[in-house]
Predict the 3D structure of the following.
Amino acid sequence: MQRRSPLSNILDTEITYLNGVGPQRAAVLQKVLGISTFGDLLYLFPYKYINRTQVHRIADVTEDAPYVQLVAKLVGMGATGQGRNSRFTAIVDDGTGRMELVWFGGIRWIAQKLKPNATYVIYGKPARYGDRLSITHPEIDPYNPEKSEIGGIIPAYSTSESMKNAHISSKTIAQLQRTLIEKVHKHINETLPPYIIEQERLMTLPEALFNVHFPQSQVLLERALYRLKFEELFFLQLGILRRRNGRNVQTQGHVFGTVGDMFNRFYAEKLPFPLTDAQKRVIREIRADMRTGRQMNRLLQGDVGSGKTVVALMSMLIAVDNGFQACIMAPTEILANQHYESMSKMLSGLPINVGLLTGSSRKAERNALHRALEQGELHILIGTHALLEDVVQFHNLGLVVIDEQQRFGVAQRARLWDKNATSPPHVLVMTATPIPRTLAMTVYGDLEVSVIDQLPPGRKPVRTIHYTDAMRERLFGLMRQQIAEGRQVYVVYPLIRESEKMENLKDLQDGYESITRAFPPPHYVTVVVHGQMSADDKDFGMNQFASGRAHIMVATTVIEVGVNVPNATLMVIESAERFGLSQLHQLRGRVGRGADESYCVLMTSTKLSADSRRRMDTMVATNDGFRIAEVDLQLRGPGDIEGTLQSGTPFDLRLASITADAPLMQRARQTAQTVLDTDPLLQLPHHAAMATHLNTLAIKRTDFGGIS
Ligand code: ADP
Ligand code: MG
């Protein structure tokens, strides 16, 4: 498939026109790497560089070195062992000492290749066996003082099994890049206007592309990478900001011009606590946004327990004050019920009708509710995704709040938009999974962001402890002590995949039994809540716990979001290594809601992977959701972060890292903003090449979005 941009470009040439690429190689490159043009290959960057500028002396080599490069003479070699135990050993000497090279496979080939007394360049990872240092399966090439690559920085391209089968190695790719860059170097079009290159002190594009494949020095490599990362982030942000600007002009919003009676009376008479400064600021931001005439699309971030619910409620009151209806959608029935109870209570005495709609609402109730909603008698509707059904019609919906957004996708959000026939309602999306600023800027780059960065006063940080299964007695001790003090305990089991449902339930059942053995009734009351129970049973369990009649709640992650029982002070997470960081943090957020000292115990097996250990250590070290999100992002990469895929902003960064290059991202965004401030539609002649490039990228992204 050939795509030609208006400025016809040599980089669009089909890859088969490159010397060294026949039909077979072309097919592999296309299939494995998605490379079909010169440009595709040129933008296939090395995943690392091997610094061969240094030659080590054997006398200095230790087994700790990550790699060494030697220039040494072959002084002995031979095969030993039989069949599976056969190996080939070579001894090399560089005048400072001797070293062993070992091969376990490809023995015949290596035996033919090596010549006694010849000098070789040897590269590999040293290891110690007994008192001898050796390198297993080193790279080894004849030393040629003129041609050896000593002194260079060698690119390494990743290769897969099928590429190896087609004899395409990292070296092959480097050779192709060499041929390619010689051919196209003079014809590469700059994508950035000269003033940006100058102002940001960037390397030009041809120079950067050359040095990223063939670094002429460490400094030039770094400058090349900087230029290419900047470019990547700049175009990403330029696209996002352009789209946002476009939407601001296009989408008319309801004007909520007044803050009226309901809001003011609630504030003066009903609010059970003074708002934190952060809550006040965020409410001001929302209020200002809803009165502009533009449709609001705002993300409200706030750590668990930061008090987002009341912000949602007061925003909904502004809608009501302006003659509109509002709704809030929660991801689980438990949470919807809880919102309904707490909001009804807070609003009692005010002339506001609040309704609840979930999957288990009875038919008669439901019909009455639909009618009241359509006639505008119901002011605020609280519910689950049952709100999305077509039969749910509003009289005039003005504001939609989506709680714990990471559970919903873009499509669901869009369906709520359509619930107002004349123009879309304002949208407030709330999330307790803090998204690092850099990611928010990208993934939600077209949303406004408000942050509650402060917890209500008097909260004590939750103390987090990591126990292995062998320390279960200590856990039971802590549970007994908390219950003796009148507190309550959650014990949570992981629910991994649908297909493992039965197994997980068995875990839960076994756990429940072992807990009732250690905490026998009637002295102790333990309830179970999980996703497969009927709504009635779930409610019963929840109510037992919420009302304080049950001491222990054994549950799956259904309680992950939103559940609020301030008297619960101990959260036990079983098989904690099976949870992601953000989930662990969410679960921990279920305790520490009252004034008492609270605990979170992470139970794991003794053997942990490095990643799991880092997750446990992070949880123990900090309560700060933003720091946790940063680590999460480092461990998983942005593609896996919940919400990224649903965000509707597909992006694929080849060089830049959202975590490591945060300052550069900021800079690129500012530059992009300045460009759009002076030339919103990118119509100025000196922006032409840039605009064309942006459009080409946009086309590629759409294609990518379509297939992924
Ligand atoms: P989240 O942001 O996790 O949704 P919630 O809105 O559920 O948090 O609030 C957590 C708890 O803190 C609730 O019990 C709520 O009543 C209480 N709360 C909220 N704001 C304040 C405040 N300003 N001062 C004291 N308590 C507050
Ligand atoms: Mg909440």
